[in-house]
Amino acid sequence: MTDTLPYGNDQLINAAMACALHADACRGHACVAWVVLWDLPAYPERFAARLATSTASPYLLLANTLAGIRKMLPPGLVRSEPSPAPTTSHMPSSIG
Known about the structure:
By secondary structure, this protein is α+β, with helices and mostly antiparallel strands. The chain has one domain (2-72). 22% of the residues lie in helices and 33% in strands. It has 2 helices and 5 strands, in the order E-E-H-E-E-E-H. The protein has a 5-stranded mixed beta sheet with strand order 1-2-5-4-3, with helices on one face. Strand 4 and strand 5 (56-63) form a beta hairpin. The chain is globular.
């Protein structure tokens, strides 16, 4: 079940749909991730999780708490730490 939201192509999904979409994405892509974000302009003061493969999908989980998002995500996912933002000291001299 999906609900179309008034923000672009976003489609709000539930946990069952998240699991089905995740399984389907894993069959067709080498890398599948759920990106968890906080306080997006379209969804202030809420956590959002978006399925990502080679691009971000329109499918979105929303919750008021991080624990709520974690409950909705497919089982077996592993959290990875965010990458540090690049600084000019780490960029090749042709860029920085």
